[in-house]
Amino acid sequence: MHRGESPAFLLVRKMAASSAQPQFLVQYLVLRKDLSRAPFSWPAGALVAQACHAATAALHIHRDHPHTEAYLRDLGRMRKVVLEAPDENTLKELAETLQQKNVDHMLWLEQPENIATCIALRPYPKEEVNQYLKKFRLFK
After folding, report:
1. What is the helix (H) or strand (E) element at residue 8, kind and residue range?
2. Cα dist. 49→55, 84, 98, 108 in Å?
3. pLDDT, tens digit, 9 for 90 and up, residues 83-102
């Protein structure tokens, strides 16, 4: 530490430097894997459509949030991560956890059957939400 620089000054300088770095925003989607297998056997296109519905709805609902605005300002740098949930119960449990932790998301329900198919979070810095998603693997 240089002479004359108090710990408080150094902390403020460190915070200012870290906020100057670009913040990478990610939109996470969690899609039900069991829908691709028997007895459901949904085609790949139908599953992709569910993820698209959920992602679009989450972006629309949270369009005024600063993270969503920043995410949509630079379309060429959008990042999405699609994870898989083994079944509907797991997906609904995740939705409950996200709601309890005040994580903005959309649980997409396919109509008219009212089937929970996908969760999409609004764009977040991954560090803010990865603790809730770490048990889910990439969708295959």
Report:
1. helix 7-20
2. 10, 15, 23, 11
3. 999 999 999 999 999 999 99
Tokens of residue 62, six digits: 């949270």
| pLDDT tens readout for residues 7-38 | 443 443 444 444 445 579 999 999 999 999 99
- Number of H helices and E strands in the chain, helices first, is 5, 6
In angstroms, the CA 60 to CA 71 distance is 12
Integer-rounded Cα radius of gyration of the chain: 19
pTM of the predicted model as reported, rounded to 2 decimal places: 0.83
Distance, CA of 84 to CA of 139 (rounded, Å): 5
CB within 8 A of 139, min separation 6: which ones?
Answer: 31, 33, 82, 83, 84
Q: Which fold would CATH assign to domain 25-134?
A: Bit1 (3.40.1490)
**Cα 98 to Cα 81: distance, rounded to the nearest angstrom:** 17
**Close Cβ partners of 85 (under 8 Å, ≥ 6 residues apart):** 30, 31, 32, 33, 91, 94, 119, 136
CA dihedral over 108, 136, 89, 38, signed as positive or negative: positive
